[in-house]
Specification:
globular; about 230 residues
Length: about 230
């Protein structure tokens, strides 16, 4: 009995230590995003090749990015954005950003794999999520700021929103360049190719779901016809 208790307590201690180690690494990877924002070239290199980033932190940034979109539509002052909140579907709004984001990651992975790109899908996903940090850091305060300024002071609000987008796009560019070990020119070319690839993927998905909808409609009609004739 004592041996069993000893083994059980040892397992619990190991699990507790593993959780603490995971939590510490998660917190460190969250803080590391600030270094990535201010030192993108070194930051993204270490993020991928030195494993300074984590999937959990990347998922956190993506969630905060989607939440920022929803809160911006719901809480921004009517002077700067007008949305019928009563008809707002937060899941549709989040999905309208999540799906293109994932498609862009898949398209970039698919295109670069054919041309000596060194990044795995998980590396691309993590880098893209970390590139969203400036957008997150600026957009949330701007929601509050929009309720504290007048329409005439809106240029201040607009400039900061623009900075958040430009900064994130720049980080995404540098992140993909470091992930695939490309030069700036080749990275720019493959960004264009990635967008084209994403458009193709979206087109194929639309065709697939259209055919699937027609097939389901056909079998439902066929089933109803059989039931009608039998009964």
């Amino acid at each position: 009995m004592s041996v069993t208790k000893f083994v059980g307590s040892s397992d619990k201690q190991q699990k507790a230590e593993a959780r603490k180690a995971w939590l510490k690494r998660y917190k460190d990877s969250l803080r590391y995003s600030l270094y990535v924002c201010t030192h993108p070239f070194d930051g993204f290199w270490d993020l991928v090749h030195e494993k300074r980033g984590t999937l959990a932190a990347a998922n956190t940034f993506l969630f905060l990015f989607l939440l920022a979109r929803v809160l911006k539509l719901m809480l921004t002052s009517f002077q700067f954005i007008s949305v019928p909140v009563q008809h707002l579907n937060m899941f549709e709004e989040a999905g309208s950003l999540l799906l293109p984001f994932l498609i862009l990651c898949v398209a970039n992975w698919a295109m670069t794999t054919l041309f000596d790109g060194k990044g795995r899908f998980i590396d691309i996903y993590i880098a893209m999520c970390y590139a969203l940090v400036p957008y997150i850091l600026i957009q949330y305060p701007m929601i509050l700021v929009s309720r504290m300024i007048t329409f005439d002071e809106g240029s201040f609000y607009t400039v900061f929103l623009g900075i958040s987008v430009v900064w994130s796009v720049f980080l995404a560019f540098v992140g993909l360049m470091e992930v695939h070990d490309y030069g700036p020119g080749k990275t720019l070319i493959f960004l264009v190719v990635t967008i084209l690839g994403a458009c193709i993927i979206i087109f194929l998905l639309l065709v697939f779901f259209s055919l699937l909808s027609d097939a389901i409609g056909y079998f439902v009609s066929f089933y109803r016809e059989i039931i009608y004739r039998l009964y």
